[in-house]
Design a protein that fits this description.
Elements: H1 12-25, H2 45-53, H3 60-68, H4 70-77, H5 80-91, H6 97-105, H7 107-113, H8 118-129, H9 134-148, H10 155-168, H11 174-207, H12 213-227, H13 232-247, H14 252-260, H15 262-268, H16 271-286, H17 291-299, H18 301-306, H19 315-322, H20 327-330, H21 337-344, H22 346-353, H23 358-369, H24 374-382, H25 384-391, H26 393-399, H27 401-409, H28 414-421, H29 424-428, H30 433-439, H31 441-446, H32 453-461, H33 463-469, H34 472-486, H35 492-499, H36 503-508, H37 515-530, H38 535-551, H39 553-566, H40 573-588, H41 597-607, H42 610-615, H43 630-635, H44 637-646, H45 668-720, H46 727-787
Helix pairs in contact: 2-4, 2-5, 3-6, 4-7, 6-9, 7-8, 7-9, 8-9, 9-11, 10-11, 11-12, 12-14, 14-17, 16-17, 17-21, 21-24, 24-28, 25-26, 32-35, 34-37, 35-38, 37-38, 38-39, 38-40, 40-41, 40-46, 45-46
Length: 788
């Protein structure tokens, strides 16, 4: 059945036209577009080969499908396609542009499919490289680059280099020379130093003298790629003079290419070339009449100053750098690119010129900070610790502390605050203990905001560094409370990171005379997590112990081993699963307690837990047996055999045979959580329904009482009026009163219906919020279990 139906009312001529359209454009309804099996596997090899040889006679839909999957067809044909492949490729030389593009995209796959197909593929690519359409040329060049990866040794030079040189020498076609330059730049690293110095570099320099400006521009664009391959002597004698000559051109396109690749040439140049030639050239670019060339030159200035030795820096370069915040300079390029480049290279320039220039650079720093641009301020905030190291603690306290206070107290942008917090521990290293202690109050301030959990995560990442740079007294008084608070955070990622850093505080208090008291406090605080009624705090205790058992073995064995193993009897499956994963990782790294019989017994017990088995995707390859005396082994032989008979163990299989064990049944933990969630929702629904019914009854009673009061007042007012109207007027007043009562009744009825809808909406919202909270609890439980 086709997807087009012809109306019987059409004339015969119209029907013939529709039949022709049907043959060309229709496709089967049960055929999926792009599905290989729907149009390939139905054909045997002879039929498939015949179709490929007559691809030009196919309808557009069939031609598109076969062309998109021609590499698959060649694989199916096998040896039969070897002799006919050049004929098949010949058919695409005269096809439309879109079919040629589809065919070229498959050539690298055809090349990989068969060794006999390699030479025909290179030949057809050389044909498409000479095509008149630039898009097809560039696509053929990219496919040739992919094919070059599979060529070995001299094959690259023998097969690809003649094609490229032939295109480079095509004086009649400018696009051929441009594509040849692109191929030279991409393939120069594959050709190697010998072919690059013998052929590629000279061809690039030759095309750099071309009469067409686009060709000369492309030669400059590909020059850095070739320069990275050739030797230093060849670069200094040949390519560097060529680049300097191109910089002197008056053509805007060539000059733009030179300034855009200026920093790449700087990386390959010597100090003499930087100070003698490139400095003068950069100053010339900065005075150029073209606005873009001038702006790019200023954008390169900071990195160029950082690449020169301190004693050889031209003073005019520093002067120009200090002017980058001026209005006439910063507006040369859009989106404040000049200002961002100035801020990005500020620490490198300061490191190069030294502290003596800090007063001048400090004014520039303040000017950049006042721009209130997110990218600029974030870059400066992230580099404050590097600036502080260069200028020293005294100047940093005077000049940088106010900036920090502004960031932490008044900065509305969280990205700027985040950039500063990431390196805050590095910033505090250079200051005295008094200054560090005074600055720690900021930590209490910034970690209070519950919405900014990424900032708390960044602080948690630096707890181990803070444990080493602060004295033991400050650690005990100020940092430990922050650390343990982060271990109870409402975000699982923050809890995980903070818990894994607690081990560092044992190292930070070692040299203190009160180290034993501090150690006792840390251990008691950790055991408080183990005894907590909140399950994720017990998980945090496991995460704390997973690091301490690796670095502080004596403390772990004496104080924490027993509380840790007690969690094997925890009622929450995710806690037991996390304990199992922690013990498994510890035994894999062969910790000092790997032969502890209690630890091994608990690990074997958890390994046989059904809920843990359902959560583990792979069967543990680590087989652990507790080393016990022979008498105990004989005593435990019978119960072990019974346990094995009751719960058969999985057979050990290779990963190649079955890479992953698929769990078909839903884990028990998820079933229990889902049942608890449904029961809780039902209870909440019943409670809410009772409350809503009571409230609606009370409101209806009030409304009815209000109606009766209004009717009585109206009746009294009517009786007090004089009876001067005739019978017609009395009838009219009765009708008016009846209509008013009817309107009041309809209005009250509408209010009642609207109130009922609002109550129903509130009930649905409360049920949705309650369900989302329960779902979030369930997700947190699963994430906490899976992250470890």
């Amino acid at each position: 059945m086709y997807n087009i139906k012809i109306s019987p009312k059409l004339k015969s001529d119209d029907r013939s036209i529709m039949n022709q359209i049907l043959k060309e454009e229709a496709f089967f309804l049960n055929q999926k577009q792009g599905d290989i099996h729907s149009f390939v596997l139905d054909d045997d090899q002879d039929q498939l080969l015949n179709k490929l040889l007559n691809v030009h006679k196919m309808t557009n839909i069939d031609k598109e499908n076969y062309t998109k999957h021609i590499s698959y067809c060649v694989r199916n044909l096998g040896q039969k396609s070897t002799d006919k492949l050049p004929m098949i490729m010949e058919k695409y030389k005269n096809e439309d542009e879109r079919f040629q593009i589809m065919f070229i995209e498959q050539l690298n796959l055809i090349y990989e499919a068969s060794l006999q197909a390699q030479q025909p593929v290179i030949q057809i690519l050389s044909f498409f490289l000479l095509n008149s359409i630039l898009k097809i040329k560039e696509l053929a060049g990219s496919q040739l680059t992919k094919i070059a990866l599979h060529l070995q040794g001299d094959e690259k030079g023998n097969q690809l280099l003649p094609i490229i040189i032939k295109m480079a020498h095509d004086d009649l076609n400018q696009d051929n020379r441009i594509v040849a330059l692109q191929l030279m730049g991409k393939l120069s690293s594959m050709f190697g130093i010998q072919l690059s110095e013998s052929f590629i570099a000279f061809e690039v320099m030759s095309l750099g003298e071309d009469s067409k400006q686009d060709v000369r521009k492309e030669a400059v664009n590909q020059l850095p790629l070739v320069a990275k391959v050739v030797g230093k002597d060849f670069f200094n004698k040949k390519l560097f003079p060529f680049y300097m000559k191109r910089c002197k051109e008056t053509n805007t396109k060539v000059k733009t290419a030179c300034v855009e690749h200026f920093l790449q040439i700087v990386e390959l140049s010597s100090q003499n070339q930087k100070t003698a030639d490139l400095t003068a050239q950069l100053l010339q670019f900065q005075n150029d009449s073209n606005k873009y060339v001038k702006g790019v030159a200023y954008r390169c200035l900071a990195r160029f100053i950082a690449a020169i030795e301190k004693d050889k820096i031209e003073p005019r370069l520093i002067e120009n750098y200090l002017k980058m915040a001026d209005s006439d300079i910063r507006e040369l390029l859009p989106e404040q690119q000049v200002m961002f480049a100035c801020a990005y290279g500020f620490p490198a320039v300061l490191q190069t010129v030294g502290v003596a220039r800090w007063q001048q650079l400090h004014k520039l720093f303040n000017h950049l900070w006042k721009q209130k641009n997110e990218r600029i301020c974030k870059t400066l905030a992230a580099s404050l610790h590097e600036i502080a190291k260069i200028i020293g603690a005294e100047k940093a306290e005077i000049d940088l502390f106010p900036v920090l206070e502004t960031i932490f107290v008044k900065e509305p942008n969280d990205n700027v605050l985040m950039g500063c917090v990431k390196n805050l521990s590095q910033f505090l290293k250079i200051f005295s203990d008094e200054k560090k202690e005074a600055f720690l109050e900021i930590f209490f301030f910034i970690q209070r905001d519950l919405k900014k959990w990424r900032i708390r995560e960044s602080i948690a990442n630096q707890l181990d560094e803070m444990a080493l740079i602060f004295p033991a007294e400050i650690i005990f008084r100020m940092i430990l409370p922050i650390a343990f608070k982060l271990c109870t955070d409402n975000v699982a990622q923050v809890r995980k990171i903070a818990s894994s850093k607690i081990y560092a505080f044992f190292q930070g208090i070692k040299d203190s005379p009160l180290s034993e008291q501090y150690q006792t406090f840390i251990i008691e605080s950790m055991i408080g997590f183990q005894k907590s009624s909140v399950f994720y705090q017990r998980q945090s205790f496991i995460q704390m112990c997973s690091k301490i058992m690796q670095f502080e073995d004596a403390i772990f064995q004496q104080h924490l081993l027993r509380p840790l193993l007690e969690l094997a009897q925890d009622k929450v499956q995710s806690v037991r699963y996390m304990l199992y994963m922690a013990l498994e990782n510890y035994l894999k790294i062969q910790g000092r307690q790997q032969e502890n019989p209690q630890l091994l017994e608990v690990f074997n017990q958890l390994s046989n837990d059904k809920t843990i088995k359902s959560l583990v995707k792979y069967k543990p390859t680590l087989e652990v047996q507790a080393k016990e005396p022979e008498s105990k082994q004989q005593e435990n032989l019978l119960p072990n055999s019974e346990m094995i008979s009751q719960e058969p163990q999985l057979e050990e299989i290779d990963d190649d045979e079955i890479p992953q064990r698929i769990v078909q049944e839903e884990p028990d933990i998820l079933k229990q959580l889902r049942q608890e969630k449904q029961e809780f929702i039902k209870k909440q629904e019943e409670i809410q329904k009772e409350q809503l019914e009571k409230e609606s009854d009370e409101k209806l009673i009030e409304q009815v009482s209000q109606i009766t009061i209004n009717e009585n007042t109206e009746a009294n007012e009517f009786n007090d009026q004089p009876t001067q109207s005739v019978d017609d007027s009395s009838d009219q007043s009765i009708k008016n009163n009846e209509s008013q009562e009817l309107q009041q009744f309809e209005q009250l009825q509408g209010q009642g219906e609207q109130q009922q809808k609002e109550n129903d909406g509130l009930q649905q919202n409360e049920e949705y919020e309650q369900g989302s909270q329960n779902d979030q609890k369930e997700i947190n439980t699963e994430e906490d279990a899976s992250q470890l």
